[in-house]
Design goal:
It is a single chain. The chain is α/β, with parallel strands linked by helices and about 325 residues long. It has a single domain (about 5-305), classed as Alpha/Beta hydrolase fold, catalytic domain (Rossmann fold, 3-Layer(aba) Sandwich), CATH 3.40.50.1820. The protein is built from nine helices and eight strands. Strands 1-2-4-3-5-6-7-8 form an eight-stranded mixed β-sheet, with helices on both faces.
């Protein structure tokens, strides 16, 4: 990437935050922005909840302007497990519904630090379990129509939910879409095994320090961060996982670890499609609908959804590099 392009992109860098001190301010800002756009999106969704014992987990269901598919996208939002909610992600979920033609169900899981690991993950797991075990009750024709989707920390949660469903003996989703997910525990440029952490950990949309701050709030116990339900790349067994679409952003410090997780899934026998969005920053799924990065990503998502989930096809190769035998890039 040339210096001029890098300088221009630097203008879009997020303000540097001390996440551990400022997370409450970030939440208030997100809620304020959502309130400003709320009337535009309110007609397209309805509010419901999943009841787990005495605990209610809010779920917001978005209807597309034109329903073109039977799939229901069960969505876990990003925000470092600390910020973000169904309010702040309403514009992104409305866009997701319209551009895929699918119903989108957004889960309002509990956030750290008030509710550290595994509280938010258990919320996501319980909603997924209920929907997959009794889809008709949720208004879904078949469990095969349920697709797990998550971005950033939400991609981490989607991956972890898939692992939990298999480990606890429940029916799993047949497909998952992981958007620039967190899959590893180490984001220190001095020790991380991933080049993207060193190349992009101080620039643009998300920094290494911010990710480490999020981890401090989500998983205060450093030893527990190597738990595979925190860092899916640490899982000793990745067999039996869903057909996966792995979308990464070229200029994101999480790029390499996301693709490494896809490689690990493929080596364990899962069918994986990769797509790296060139020139994209972390969090592009929340950009306006005219954004090139967002449009490109949804073209790939739609192609993935149109594939027969039961087809016996080859596994995709790592984007941006040479393909191994028997692998191909996402359509």
């Amino acid at each position: 990437m040339n210096r001029l392009f890098r300088s221009v992109l630097g203008l879009f860098a997020a303000p540097r935050l001390n996440v551990r001190e400022d997370y409450a301010k970030v939440r208030r800002f997100q809620q304020h922005v959502a309130a400003l756009s709320g009337p535009r999106y309110r007609p397209v969704y309805r509010q419901t909840a999943a009841d787990v014992g005495t605990h209610r987990i809010p779920v917001r269901v978005f209807q597309p302007k034109e329903k073109r598919r039977d799939e229901v996208l069960l969505f876990f939002h990003g925000g470092g497990w600390v910020t973000g909610d169904i309010e702040s992600y309403t514009p992104a979920c409305a866009t997701m519904a319209d551009l895929t033609g699918c119903v989108v169900a957004s889960v309002d899981y509990r956030l750290a630090p008030e509710h550290p690991f595994p509280a938010g993950l258990e919320d996501c797991f319980n909603v997924a379990r209920l929907v997959l075990e009794d889809p008709q009750r949720a208004g879904i024709a078949s469990a095969a129509n349920v697709v797990l989707v998550g971005d950033s920390a939400g991609g981490n949660l989607a991956a972890a939910v898939s692992l939990m469903l298999r480990e606890r003996g429940h029916r799993g989703a047949s497909r998952q879409v992981l958007l620039y997910p967190v899959t590893h525990w180490d984001h220190d440029p001095a020790t991380s095994p991933f080049a993207s952490v060193r190349h992009h950990g101080e620039d643009y949309r998300l920094t290494s320090m911010e990710v480490q701050d999020y981890f401090d709030l989500y998983v205060p116990d450093h030893q527990q961060r190597r738990n595979h339900l925190v860092a899916p790349l640490m899982a000793p067994d990745l067999s039996g996982q869903p057909k996966t679409l792995l979308i990464t952003a070229e200029l994101d410090l999480l790029c390499d670890e996301g693709e490494a997780y896809g490689e690990a899934l493929a080596e364990a026998g899962s069918e994986v499609r990769f797509h790296r969005v060139d020139g994209a920053l972390h969090g592009f799924i929340a950009l306006p609908r005219f954004s090139r990065s967002l449009r490109e990503a949804y073209e790939v998502v739609n192609a993935f959804l149109d594939e027969d989930s039961d087809e016996d096809s080859t596994v995709a190769g790592r984007p941006g590099g040479s393909s191994r035998p028997g692998r191909q890039d996402a359509p």
